[in-house]
Amino acid sequence: MKMYQQAIRLQERKRGFHLVTQEILKGLPNLSEIKSGLCQVFIQHTSASLTINENADPTVRKDFEMYFNKTVPENDPEYMHDYEGSDDMPAHLKAALLGSSVLIPITNGKLALGTWQGIYLCEHRDRGGPRSIVITAWGE
């Protein structure tokens, strides 16, 4: 069994849903050595998340942002955790809903994503800063 792990830093992005598939792939140059296995991509933050979804039409990413902003609004007077700004507690809730990692099969040295699938960085803060990612791939 082969195992590779790499930490990468994604550049700061504005709030929204951003395709980062190519950056993830650059972070694991040894991926081609694994014929069958798994790749976990993990974000080390509580106000951003990862998900897999549509990689072609950018309106999907805009609709994701609209939906989550309506579902988890800012400035709710019942939020107790509000000292880091009005976007902070909603960012934590959105990250909890979407999750901190994705697990993707590896087939013949490539991520087995579907034709229209890509990895999203879901940035839930107005100014979240650079984001730290740990990528782990293992298999035969």
Automatic annotation (TrEMBL):
InterPro entries, sorted: UPF0047_YjbQ-like, YjbQ-like_sf
Gene3D superfamilies for this protein: YjbQ-like
SUPFAM superfamilies: YjbQ-like (SSF111038)
Any Pfam family the entry gives: YjbQ
Family: Belongs to the UPF0047 family.
Database matches in NCBIfam families: TIGR00149_YjbQ
Entry protein name: Secondary thiamine-phosphate synthase enzyme
Species annotation: Segetibacter aerophilus
Lineage: Bacteria, Pseudomonadati, Bacteroidota, Chitinophagia, Chitinophagales
